[in-house]
Each structure stands twice: as C-alpha cells, then as structure tokens.
Automatic annotation (TrEMBL):
Transmembrane segments: none
Alphabetic keyword roster: Lipoprotein
Protein name per UniProt: ABC-type transport auxiliary lipoprotein family protein
Short name of any one Pfam family annotated for the protein: ABC_trans_aux
Chain ranges of the ABC-type transport auxiliary lipoprotein component domain: 48-203
InterPro entries (alphabetical): ABC_trans_aux (IPR005586)
Length: 221
C-alpha cells in the first residue's frame, strides 16, 4: 500500500470517527437540546348557581363575542409581574383563546340559570329581543406589590342593547379579584375559575333584572 493510500484511509477513519463521537461528546457536555414537555391545557367552568331573586323571562337574548385587547386575545395565560409589563405562564395554556372561552362559558351560564327561554350568538337564526355586548378588559394573574402568591383579576364591561332599535339601555362593569392560595399553576387556574364564576353570576343577574321591566312595559296590556 502506497503512502498516499494510507493517508486517504486515515482521513476517512478520522471523519467516520468524528461522526460517531461528536453526538456522544455533545451529550456528555449537555449540549443536546432536551425535548420540551407538551403544554398543559386548562379549561374553566360555567356558573351553575345563582341568586334566588333573578326573574324568569320569556324573551330571547343574543350575545356578541367579547372584545379584548391583543394581549388577552390569546390562549396563553396572562400574568402581570410589574406595573407596566405583561407576561405569560410557560407550559400552560387555555383550551381556547380567552375571549372565545369566556364567550362560551357566559352563554352556558345563562342557560344554566334556567331563567331565560333562549340565548345564543347574535346574528344567528335566533330572533332576539335584547343583545348583550361585552368587552374583556382584565383577565390575568397579578403579583401585586411583589406578592409571592398571585391574585386573579377579571373585569368584563357589559352593554345591554334593545333590539331592533339598537338602543343602549344600560351599561355596567363587573370585576372580581381573588387571591390564589399558593403559586402553583393548578391553584392559579382554580382561582381564575372562582373569579370568572363570580363575574358571570353577577352579569347574568344584572342582565335579566335590567331588561325584564322594559320588556314588560313593551307588551300590550
């Protein structure tokens, strides 16, 4: 074997050896990226208990999907750690974007009240007497004044509109602030459920009470 052949074989062996050893070397140094665990999905629940003084009504209500700022129009779980910054929890998401999830739960809450004949999306086949427009202003966990456990703030602005005249009859803001018992994401999600449930309960009661007097006045004697 010539000296040139020996050199060629030596280079090939070196390349082959490098290809085998490089992953082992990287693994030994901890360089190889570790696969990220899948994000855990969380859902919230509709409200199913209400005050006894909510009136039963015979009219139908249409709901518009909530408006929301871009930072909240996401499936990621928002958190405020500073006065002027917004972040999201890693490894956890809602099953839907926050406005879509709140919209579905609010419709289910009206249905669970058992006090209204029909409720559904505005503009669908449902012929509605009133329309409820909502805006999701706050829907985040907050570490207030550097607290170790967050509080969850939910605020929804509502406008009750008479159809078909499209006149605003009443408007109200509903807010709930609940403190999480600890800093675990499961506890924080449960606190979201409590805060949103409290807010939806008051929205259902306010809507039915606000509209019932006017609708009765419209009906012929």
């Amino acid at each position: 074997m010539s000296q040139q052949d020996k050199a060629t074989i030596s280079r090939r062996g070196l390349i082959a050896g490098t290809g085998t050893l490089l992953p082992l070397a990287l693994a030994g140094c901890g360089v190889l990226p570790k696969p990220m665990p899948p994000e855990q999905l969380y859902r919230l629940s509709p409200k199913s208990t209400f005050d006894d003084d909510i009136p039963a009504v015979g009219w139908q209500l249409g709901l518009e999907p909530p408006l929301a700022p871009a930072g909240l129009n996401s499936a990621r779980i928002a958190v405020l750690r500073g006065e002027l910054t917004m972040d999201y929890y890693s490894g956890a998401k809602w099953v839907d974007t926050a406005p879509s999830m709140v919209y579905r739960l609010l419709i289910e809450s009206f249905e669970n009240s058992g006090k209204i004949v029909g409720v559904g999306r505005s503009g669908a086949s449902l012929r509605t007497d009133f329309e409820l427009r909502t805006e999701l202003r706050e829907f985040q966990a907050e570490y207030i004044d550097g607290a170790s456990n967050p509080s969850v703030r939910v605020r929804i602005n509502c406008k009750l509109i008479k159809k078909p005249q499209r006149i605003i009859l009443a408007s109200e803001a509903f807010e709930s602030l609940k403190e999480s018992p600890d800093n675990r994401i499961e506890s924080i999600v449960k606190t979201f459920d409590l805060a949103l449930g409290s807010t939806m309960k008051r929205i259902v009661g306010w809507t039915l009470k606000s509209a019932v007097g006017l609708h009765s006045a419209r009906r012929p004697a």
